[in-house]
Amino acid sequence: MRVGARLRREDPSLLDRWYLTAATALPVHGRKPHHPDVARELLAEMGLDPGLVAQAIDDPTTHDEVHADHERARSLGGFGVPILVFEDDAAFFGPVLLDPPTGEAAVRLWNLVLAWREFPHVYEIQRPKTAADLRLVAETFRPYLEARDWTTIQNKAP
């Protein structure tokens, strides 16, 4: 997160690239972007200076930025990730996608998310999961669950 804060100062598009890279590294490839060595590797793969990791860690204001972002999400009732925050501070948590769409399908999904904003008192909708669905979720998120270095409260998955 501190690397992201550092990159955002330089160019917000670098933050977007970092999030895509880090968000693919952990859950898809089981790499740990929160470890400095891995973060340096990822920056190098992006064609950026791996020294940005040390710059981000050595600068206490990057911690302050990350903490402020976290507190803002909490103040909006936020928990978990992803958190989508709109201009008016409306916030959505999710969606959880196993096979994110691309192209026109991604635009349709985004438009559906935006449509939810028309109904401020609709809070939650869920699709029941079959045993096969739970196995798919467990297998899809296995790299993430095995690579993370923190413990969360979770339901046992097959």
The helix/strand class is: mainly alpha
Globally, the shape reads globular
Order of helices and strands: HHHHHEEHH
The fraction of residues assigned to DSSP E strands is under 5%
Low-confidence stretches: none
How do the strands line up in the largest sheet? 1-2
Q: What is the number of helical segments per DSSP (H or I, 4+ residues)?
A: 7
Mean pLDDT metric: 89
Helix content: 55-70%
Terminal Cα span: 31 Å
Rg on CA atoms, Å? 17 Å
- Strand tally: 2
Please summarize the sheet with the most strands. 2 strands, antiparallel
Task: Describe what is shown at a glance.
With 158 residues, this protein is mainly α. It has seven helices and two strands, in the order αααααββαα.
Structural overview:
The structure is a single chain. This protein is mainly alpha-helical and 158 residues long. It contains seven helices and two strands. The protein has a two-stranded antiparallel ribbon. Helix 2 crosses helix 7. The model has no long low-confidence stretch (mean pLDDT 89).
